């Protein structure tokens, strides 16, 4: 004679599937957040490099202006 699964067994299986889906969504969300954070860190580094390049360019311009002013004087 065949035995059918109990309602408790079915409920536990359903709750386990829900839990698995929730865990998968949370993992995907965490991975997306980590990827976005890594991208933002790269942008910050790029911005720091751009800032350094800008400061160097301004310094070179000031240095050149001083040289020209000394040649004229």
Task: Describe the overall structure.
- The chain is mainly α.
- It has one domain (20-73).
- 90% of the residues lie in helices and 0% in strands.
- It is built from one helix and no strands.
- The protein is rod-shaped and about 110 Å long.
Short structural summary:
With 73 residues, the chain is mainly alpha-helical. It has one helix at 7-72.
Give the SSE map.
Layout: H1 7-72
Keywords:
90% helix; rod-shaped; mainly alpha; 1 helix; 73 residues
State the helix count: 1
From the alpha carbons, calculate the radius of gyration and give it in angstroms. Answer: 32 Å
Domains counted in the coordinates: how many? Answer: 1
**Structural class, from secondary structure content?**
mainly alpha
Mean pLDDT: 87
């Amino acid at each position: 004679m065949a035995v059918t699964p109990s309602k408790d067994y079915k409920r536990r299986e359903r709750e386990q599937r829900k839990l698995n889906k929730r865990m998968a969504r949370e993992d995907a969300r965490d991975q997306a957040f980590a990827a976005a954070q890594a991208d933002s860190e790269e942008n910050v580094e790029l911005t720091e490099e751009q800032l350094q390049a800008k400061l160097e360019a301004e310094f070179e311009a000031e240095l050149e202006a001083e040289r020209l002013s000394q040649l004229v004087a």
